[in-house]
Amino acid sequence: MVRVKPFAAIRPPKNLVTEVAAPPYDVLDSKEAKNMAGEKSLLHITKPEIDFDPILPDSDQRVYDRAVVNFKQWQEKGWLVRDPKPCYYVYAQTMGERTQYGFVLCAHSDDYAKGLIKKHELTRKDKEDDRMVHIRIQNANIEPVFFAFKHNEGLERILEDTVSAPSEYRFTDENGFGHEFWTIEDDNLISRITSLFTDTVESFYIADGHHRSAAAARVGAEKAALNPSHTGEEEYNYFMAVCFPESQLKILDYNRVVKDLNGLSAEEFVDRLSEDFDLRETGTGIYRPEALHNFSMYLEGKWYSLTAKAGRYDDNDPIGVLDVTILSDLVLDKLLGIKDLRTDKRIDFVGGIRGLEELKRRVDDTGMKVAFALYPVSMKQLTDIADSGNIMPPKTTWFEPKLRSGLAIHTLD
Predict the structure, then answer these.
(1) How far apart are the C-alpha atoms of 349 and 73, rounded to whole Å?
(2) What single DSSP character describes residue 244?
(3) Predicted local confidence at residue 342, as pLDDT
(4) SS3 for 38?
(5) Fewest C-beta atoms under 10 Å: which of 81, 328, 343, 349?
(6) By three-state DSSP, how is residue 235 classified?
(7) 148 with 379: CB under 8 angstroms?
(8) What is the rounded average pLDDT for all residues in the chain?
(9) How far apart are CA 143 and CA 127, in angstroms?
(10) Residue 123's Cα: distance from chain center in Å?
């Protein structure tokens, strides 16, 4: 079972939350962040390169030093304030007609090492190392990771009861997504939440934040090795996460655009596709995939429906049955010569939040040759793959809304 604990969050006063809270560090590039950041924005802590003119590389030592200075100053100025006692928190996000409710808590880094915090993507050491530096220099988890857990009646009832009361924070962000936040201070309820997680929840599933999870676990192990009196209960053993019931989460499509047809003409490419797909031209209006194994393609001003033929994939293989695998094997690799999605510069990825109009724009206006839209992966597929110990291909899942940074910060002391 997983180990969790409450924590005394550092967070903004109610009247400053909209000025402090910010998108995650990896959603904006430095120029976008500089244009967005107001005086009190957490972006000055998560992307402090924006404080320099011209903007510095984010790996510059002066950037790391500025992050530490800014975090300290935000607390000195009262823009971030530590709660007087350890609490659990509830965070709600609303996108359109759908709202998801999650616990803000601390998970144990040993559970990551033991595989109880399950991943579905590979991580890159260079990105882990970068996140480690940020955790180490701040001695804090400035931004949470995004977990899911399987249906748990007791925990979900607590979520329902908590959100029936007025929230402490409530605001709408620049994308039109709603955010609400509650504090759970009652000691008896805190104990019950801890017991329910540690007695009944077998594992967490990383939805978003694989590199931050890995980095936090490495920092915990690093600090443990330096502490001759290490017990496993020190604050540095824990890192901050927002944990949602999986039934409330929805994965959006994660689509692909490619720069060329690998020497094929459009006619030759369509003919070759017909070997493995039932292909139908749908016209100039946007076509959206209708089911698993059905893809949409935009090529030379026209949309196509592509449905993988029976026998071209293995329904009994949890990885092979994924549409990202089918597209990679039968199109990107076989026809377009793209062997490694992580390194090939001929392919780019477009999150489903941008819509299929963005695929059309990328082909029509930016020099890309062809675009493919995929039917979204389900949460069941994600958890099945994580439970089996398998890893999804790169750029398979896109979760939205993104967790807002700055609503809670966890320090490691």
Answers:
(1) 38
(2) E
(3) 80
(4) coil
(5) 343
(6) helix
(7) yes
(8) 95
(9) 15
(10) 13
